[in-house]
Every structure is written in C-alpha cells, then in structure tokens.
Specification:
By secondary structure, this protein is of the alpha/beta class. The protein contains ten helices and ten strands.
Length: 255
C-alpha cells in the first residue's frame, strides 16, 4: 500500500480517501493508483461505510494526474494504449462504486485528477479551484474516448474543446454555473460542506442511488439503455417493500 494514499473512516459512515503527495501536486504513480483501488475495495467491504470522499492534501491540488516521470520510458504508441487502458480501469472502478461518492477539490483538478473527479457523483470545491487537461501544451497526448465522453456529458462539448484543444482552465465559478460542481465555498469551509453533503446522501435510499448511478454510467459511457436487471433489483428489494408499507400506512393514518 502506497504511503501517499490514506484512508480514514469517520464515525458518521463517511470514508475519506486522501492523496497525500503535495510536493508533487498529488501526482499519481501506478502504485498509488493500485492503492486507491485497494482502498475502494476496502470501503465497499466495510458495512459501516455509506459514502466515500476523495481529497488531495496540501490545499493546492486535488490530483494533478499521472506523474509525468512515468512517461519517460514509453517506446511507442502501444505503451500509450496500455496506459490509457490502465487509467480507464481506475476511472471505471471509481464510477462503479455502489456508494455515493464526492470529490473534494481544493486547487487544481488536472488530467487524470479531472477524470477521477468527473467519475464521482458530486463535486465540491474551493473558490480558487481550477479544472482542465492542458495536454495540448504539455505532453501532446490525448484522453481516452470514454473519458472524453464523461467530460462531454458533465461539461458539454464547447467546454471540453476549450480545455483539451485550447489548453484553457475552467474556474470554479464557470463549472458551478454549468452544474459540474454541487457547491463552491471558501477554503476553510470546504471539508464541512463535503461532509454535510455526504450526510444528506446517506439519509436517502441506497437502492435508488445505486440504480441511478449504474443507469447513467451505461447511458454515458456505453450508450446502453438496457435496465431490466436494475429495475428488477430495485422493485424486488426490501427497501422498496418497506417504503411502500411505511408510505401507505402514513397516508391512511392522515385520512
């Protein structure tokens, strides 16, 4: 387990996975990605965890993507294909988390960090946060089509072109205006805002939340509309049956 990726499970039921490498703007190595995946598994296996927050330490960056030193040994395009497949496995895993997820962004959310934030259900950020993937002026590489599809669904084609083709950054105010972030707040209030959102999510139906998350993932990333398995699971759940009984009992008492 990488020392730069840490997990805290709060008594409230919210788990917090922190990327703690501020001297490198929380840039990720492959070992760090593997540790991230292992901690996600650990959270999902812990029945006390009901929401997961992702955060970068240091107050300057959320995650600055993959450490550029990793690319020095690339020989040809096949290494790029393998790398993008690896990143997709990480982002897909975040997107498939059954629990509600929140990206807590303080500073730069760049490249792979932007992709990870986009894969979360909600985002809260500080007023000084910036969002982008300036690959057109840094590495001259690209993002996978699946990650571009996620960005397009979240931000719209014009903003994605601005970030990827012009290498421009979007401000916290710009991404709030288009609904990409749930809340923009002062830096000192960021943690409280994120945990308040987590508490609200944890009071609502996990069965509904899980089904909605998976439906949206299929629609955006895989262009699929099949949902019989999801509908069957939801309507066959104890949560649904108990909710119907509670609702109808409450209605009859009012009458």
């Amino acid at each position: 387990m990488s020392e730069f990726v840490q997990l805290t499970v709060h008594p409230t039921g919210a788990a917090e996975i922190v990327i703690d490498r501020p001297e490198r703007h929380n840039a990720m190595s492959l070992d760090m990605y593997d540790s991230l995946l292992a901690l996600i598994d650990q959270c999902e296996q812990n029945g006390a965890v009901r929401a997961i927050l992702f955060r970068g330490a240091g107050g300057k960056s959320f995650i600055a993507g993959t450490d550029i030193a990793y690319f020095k040994d690339f020989r040809d395009g096949r290494d790029g294909v393998a790398y993008e497949a690896f990143v997709e496995r990480v982002i897909d895993r975040v997107e498939r988390i059954a629990l509600p997820t929140i990206a807590v962004i303080d500073g730069w959310a760049v490249g792979g960090g932007l992709a990870l934030a986009t894969a979360c259900d909600f985002r809260v950020c500080s007023e000084s946060s910036r969002f982008g993937a300036p690959i057109a002026k840094t590495l001259s590489n690209t993002l996978s089509s699946r990650n571009i599809a996620r960005l397009q669904a979240a931000l719209g084609v014009p903003r994605v072109k601005k970030m990827l083709m012009l290498a421009d950054y979007l401000t916290a105010q710009e991404v709030e205006a288009c609904g990409f972030v749930y809340q923009v707040c002062a830096q000192h209030a960021l943690q409280d805002a994120a945990h308040t959102l987590a508490q609200r999510l944890m009071t609502l139906s996990p069965v509904t939340q899980k089904a909605v998350k998976e439906s949206l993932r299929r629609i955006v990333v895989e262009q699929r509309l099949d949902d019989e398995d999801l509908v069957d699971t939801v309507y066959g759940s104890d949560n649904f049956k108990k909710a119907v009984i509670a609702f109808t009992s409450g209605s009859s008492k009012k009458q």
